[in-house]
Amino acid sequence: MSTRALGGRTPAGRAPDLIAQPIEILFLDVDGVLADGGILLAEGLELKRFAARDGAAAYIAHRAGLKLVLVTFRDSEAVRRRAAELSVEALQGVREKGAAVRAACAQRGVEPAAAAFMGDDLVDLDAMRLVGLAIAPRDAAPAALRLAHIVTAADGGEGAVREAVETILWLNRVLAEREAAGAATRGVRRKRRGQG
Predict the structure, then answer these.
(1) Which of 13, 27, 184, 195 to pair with 125, CA 20 to 30 A apart?
(2) Integer Cα distance of 106 and 190 in angstroms
(3) Which residues on adjacent β-strands are paired with residue 134?
(4) Top-confidence range, 30-44, 49-63, 98-112
(5) pLDDT band at 127 (very low <50, low <70, confident <90, very high)
(6) HSE-CB of 34 using CA atoms within 13 angstroms
(7) Are 149 and 130 in contact (CB under 8 A)?
(8) Residue 109: which region, alpha, beta or left (left: phi > 0; alpha: psi -120 to 50)?
């Protein structure tokens, strides 16, 4: 079941049910997610269009401790440059994204359940199935939309990554608040039973 609204617009009672544990890392496809999906080729150059709001999302994620990793089928100087600007890692030329995400999680000591993947097309489906939270931009392929736990209100390359980052941080915060409230309630019960 997909949640179609994001951030504070997601029903608070359902939000923690989307994730079993806090999301530590967000893997992002590039074409159709971080970039708008268009590719301009001219005299040996490959140009891509990125949204400034998505760049700001990288800064927000860094400050909150959420790691971002780009995972793309293509190999592009534009992606290398954007990754450097955002201070994120870029895995390029990846043919099997599910395997690449699994390996990247293992390298970092992160369980796949504590990872999210944002994809928009068929090549992204294995990675989306692997992680704890699958996200797709509004204009993704139908198969990616069906698989996604969250579908952004924005199209790919138009601020969808910003929505995803803000939503993950909100989900993590709500989950932490719920866990803290549960721990406090358990402590009160133990005191009442004389075990505290």
Answers:
(1) 13
(2) 38
(3) 117
(4) 98-112
(5) very high
(6) 25
(7) no
(8) left
